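Protein fold
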Amino acid sequence: MYSRRQIFEGAENESLFLWGARQTGKSTLLKELFPNALWFDLLLSNEYEKLNKNPEILRETILANLSVSPVIIDEIQRIPTLLNEVHWLISNHNVRFIMCGSSPRKILRSGANLLGGRALRYELYPLISVEIPDFDLLKALNNGLLPKHYDAKNPSKLISAYIGSYLRDEIVAEARIRNVSSFSRFLEVAALTNGEMVNYANIASDCGVSATTIKEYFQILEDTLIGRYLPSFQKRPKRRVITAPKFYLFDVGITNFLLNRSRIEKGTELFGKAFEHFIYQEIYAHSKYSEKNYPIYYWRTASQLEIDFVLGDNEVAIEVKSTEQANVRHLKGLKAFSEEYDVKKSILISNDPLPRLVDNILILPWKVFLERLWAGEIIN
């Protein structure tokens, strides 16, 4: 069991939505935090059929159990009309609801009642380093950070089932994708371009569909919390910069499997790619969990100068290198960015054994960086 209680700090008495991809641990967390809650699980067929046909049963049941709090509705996106009952109960009886699900897409696109700000929005991501005692980087890069996968001795079967039953079946059904084979091919190509600039035309050519369809597929991944865009930093550029976004899948283990990667070991090209992806997952989760919600970008010029991540309004510039001994050539992008913008901190994350300061650039071992990140010392 991992300690994830910090997710809801400051929301003890509020109603909220808790979103997260399948198997990020939403139900496990809620059962740990609220063992005596009144629970409606819409994955159960009898519960789903009953409430889908007669949504008022939710209200009637809760009114008979007003002393029980909170009320948890699991997989709320399966019956968006229940939100009308939720709205009424919050407004008239101050009932506290926690509504969780694997995708807000259906609710957002159905025009369902979004409760007019009466429920906060939270999202649960794969595990982060500070939630895992004796965190093992190589295990994380190979297995991914979904709780069941990280702990598994042989995660490949679990990940295969996850991709088959969830990514290829459930998401296809939810998004009503007609060309299933093209979407399956798209998932593989999206993994190939993970952490790279998105070129819709090239991906469309590889998948045998239009660029418009590829944009729709990427939007489906974003709506279902399976991936997200990393925009380019374009603030008042002196140099000509690349404007296309990058795209990252939500978990490094899922990416590994889609790419059929062999075991990742230090010193390999695969390690470098997975390592950068892992650092991005940590930074993104910190932005949201800390409620600082700072934007994250990448920066690349037409002349190929690049840094991996820009945090906030060019407050922190970060480059990720898997090397065990960073040198001046690894600092080229950070130096170029600091010449163009007023940067508070320039950081190179590496596998160096100890922190160093070179030309006002802080070289940090990844463990030290993550400790400082989660201690709130990287960005204000």
Q: What stands out?
A: The chain has two domains: 5-124, 131-374. The first strand starts at residue 15 and ends at 19. The CA atoms of residues 186 and 372 lie 37 Å apart. The mean pLDDT is 92.
